[in-house]
Amino acid sequence: MPDTATHARPGLPSAAREAMERLNVEAGDLNIWLRTAANAPAQTPWFKDGGIAPGGTLAHGRVGANQMKALPHRWRWREIAPYLDKIAQIARTADVSPIEFADRQQFLLTNPGLGGRLQVAATIRCAVSIYLPGDVAPVHIHAPNATRTILSENGGYTTIEGERCLATRGDLILTPNGTWHDHGNDGSTPVMWADILDFPLLEFLDCNWIDEDFPGERESNARAQKPTHADGYSARRYGAGGLVPGFVSHRRGIGHATSPLFHYRGQAIREALTALRGEDGDPYEGATLRFVNPATGGSVFPTLDYWAQLLRPGEETRWKRETANAFYIVLEGSGTTEIGGTSFGWEENDIFVVPNFLWRRHINSGAKDAVLYVVSDMPLLEKVGQYRAQGRDPSGTVVQLVA
Ligand SMILES: [Fe+2]
Q1: 257, 113, 69, 267: which is closest to 179 by C-alpha?
Q2: CA of 183 to the centre of ligand 1 (A)
Q3: What is the pLDDT of residues 386-402, one digit of tens each?
């Protein structure tokens, strides 16, 4: 059915348009559309300085039909975490375990600007999962790239391509596209983590698939793959920074351009940040570490880039904006991030999103170090030739960081 919505430019006569709309009623049957409306994009030109607050407005015209825009948003851990307990309580007493009808015990974060879609930004999905003792997410393989950011102190595991990774708070565990993986909790207490995926991008590309017909040997529970490498395998092969083994293929699974190092340990990440604590760092980001594919030095996934950043007490970053989206999990500390004119306070385990094109700056207002883990779709934007970044110097003048 043709879209007959009009966005008449004020003062323009519309008799011609009405005539064309009448034609559109019949033309639509041929799957063509006579252009009867102007189309405006949803962002203002990158190079025009509109001040801190303005973001682009929703697109209009036929091109913009049904378009939505992600909004900056923060999910407070103290508000959302109780729902993990409520899910778990239902599971403990259920006639049918929720994992049987929902595949996972988790909640997914929805961006208030995206109409209930299961995504926090154009390319990024995030779920927060709880695994009770004995829970298993069966072995499977899929097109999206995914990670787990571990929020509970310890317990739980993910096995990827035979490598058993034991989960400890602050760990980043990768399940790159095209790797067989399963999750579970064989401990005695619940475990929680945040799952981050490029799922919406794969859906948009209609390139999403999943398979559970694992061809290898399974554990006795018949749902998980039998580990062939003990915990620590990734670190043994790739854990010496700047050194990679010369006798192995750096491709694990059937994905392309993904990291062969699956397990980045929270303790090692924190120690590396601490070692950089006395450095000036980046005026827009603080002291940062990038999670890289050790075989290439590039991002761990072709689509997503992961960083850990340390903000020292009292540290305030300068304003920055990018054409990429950024999604944050607070591992330590408390502070504020100002996004497009709105302040979002945060504390441990809070989660927030900075949609693309919006100005933002971070302030550690707490007495302790703040550690944020950041996910960005910068690698994707770079690959399509659209990555740009701007900052503001202390006087407020816009400077081109990536022109
Ligand atoms: Fe998965």
Answers
A1: 257
A2: 9
A3: 999 999 999 999 999 99
Alpha-carbon span 112 to 73, nearest angstrom: 8
Q: Shortest CA distance to 326 belongs to which of 381, 389, 377, 385?
A: 377
Please tell me the pTM assigned to this model. 0.94
Q: How far is the CA of 332 from the centre of ligand 1 (A)?
A: 27
As a whole number of angstroms, the distance between CA 59 and CA 80 comes to 32
Is 188 in contact with 102 (CB distance < 8 Å)? no
Dihedral sign from CA coordinates of 346, 350, 355, 361: positive
Per 3-state DSSP, what percentage of the chain is helix, strand, and coil (rounded to 5)?
Answer: 15, 30, 55
Distance 380 CA to ligand 1 centre (A): 21
CB atoms < 10 A from the CB of 323, how many? 19
Cα(386) to centroid(ligand 1), Å: 29
pLDDT greater than 90 at residue 100? no
Centre of ligand 1 from the C-alpha of residue 146, in Å:
7
Q: Which residues pair with 159 in a beta bridge?
A: 164, 182
Tell how far the Cα of 37 is from the centroid of ligand 1, in angstroms: 43
CA distance 239 to 241: 6
H or E, element range at 158: strand 154-160
Dump pLDDT digits (tens) for 237-267.
999 888 999 999 999 999 999 999 999 999 9
- The half-sphere exposure of 305 on its side-chain side, counting CA atoms within 13 A, is 20
Backbone angles phi, psi at 202, to 5 degrees: -65, -35
Cα gap 142→182, rounded to integer Å: 12
Answer yes or no: are the C-beta atoms of 313 and 354 closer than 8 Å. no
- Which residue type, as a one-letter code, is found at position 72? P
Q: What is the mean pLDDT of residues 195-213?
A: 97
Q: Mean pLDDT, to the nearest integer, of 10-25? A: 83
**C-alpha to C-alpha distance for 128 and 190, rounded to whole angstroms:** 13
**Which residue is it, tokens 């390319």?**
123
Distance of alpha carbon 304 from alpha carbon 375, whole angstroms: 7
Burial class (CB in 10 A: 0-12, 13-18, 19+), 403: exposed
For residue 10, give both structure tokens.
Answer: 């004020």
